Amino acid sequence: MNLEKNVEEISEKIKVSLMCSNYSFNDIMFVAVTKTETIETVEELIRCGVLHIGESRVQELVRKYEVIGDKVIWHMIGHLQKNKVKYIVDKVSFIHSLDSESLALEIEKRASKIGKVINCLIEVNISGEESKHGLKLSDVKAFLFKINKLKHINIVGLMTMAPYSNDAENSRKFFNELKELASEIKPIDNVCMKYLSMGMSNDFEVALQEGANMIRIGRALFKNDVQ
Ligand SMILES: *Cc1c(COP(=O)(O)O)cnc(C)c1O
Fold first, then answer.
1. CB under 6 Å to ligand 1: residues?
2. What pLDDT, on a 0 to 100 scale, did the predictor assign at position 216?
């Protein structure tokens, strides 16, 4: 695996995908999703200029944080159980997977204890697949009014995952629906739709065309040359 080359390749694809977008390359938050990758790989990513690291499991995030610390900005992107919030609240800047009032209350409680404000994105289950986490599209607005008084949570956007498909075009309508939803949400206290976190290795180009400004990339970064 040649990380530098892969980062370069993805950066080129990001630029091309933005040709008809209001965003430019520097507006895009590129989150490298490191999951089972090693700490050495994270350090190499840092050398390649990648400064946003995403983890889907609390245990992995904690393990890597113990070595890497605040050299990068940490994103919790996977489903988060309430009883694990306490392990990551001091470490992460972004939580992409807020999807229940009880989780919001737990984040608020833990963040207020350490005097920190956490940026959170609401995870939306656009496709309605049962295997996916996230709020139903029709529940998002009411949810925001329930939690926007929490002082240690800033809602900064929405996140979604499209159903897995071999054809990235199949993701387009789900990304478009998320963008539509974000555009209907007016800023209220502690809520501002600054970020759309959508697009992974297989569909990030389509996501960017549909208005994503946060993409979460794993496999495309760590692929080998010969394929
Ligand atoms: C693993 C994961 C990603 C990255 O997926 P790839 O297909 O490896 O790019 C993005 N978002 C979430 C929530 C994930 O769990």
1. 33, 35, 56, 77-78, 161, 200-202, 216-220
2. 98
Reply yes or no on whether the pLDDT at 40 is more than 70: yes
Note whether 215 and 200 are within 8 A (CB): yes
Res 224 pLDDT > 90: no
The atom of ligand 1 lying closest to the CA of 220 is: 9
Q: Is residue 129 part of a domain?
A: yes
From the CA of 162, how far away is ligand 1's center (Å)?
Answer: 11
Percentage of the chain surpassing pLDDT 70?
99
Using DSSP bridges, classify how beta strands 118-123 and 94-98 pair: parallel, antiparallel or unpaired: parallel
The pTM for the full model equals 0.97
- What average pLDDT is seen over the chain? 96
13 in a domain, yes or no? yes
Tally of structural domains, the chain: 1
Beta strands 214-217 and 29-33, pairing class: parallel
Instruction: Give domain status of residue 131, yes or no.
Output: yes
Question: Domain limits at 112?
Answer: 3-222
Residue identified by tokens 């409680």 is 109
CA of 216 to the centre of ligand 1 (A): 6
CATH of the domain at 7: 3.20.20.10
Measured from the Cα of 33, ligand 1's closest atom is: 4
How much distance in Å is there from the Cα of 168 to the middle of ligand 1? 14
Degrees, nearest 5: CA angle 58-59-65? 85
pLDDT for 153 beyond 90: yes
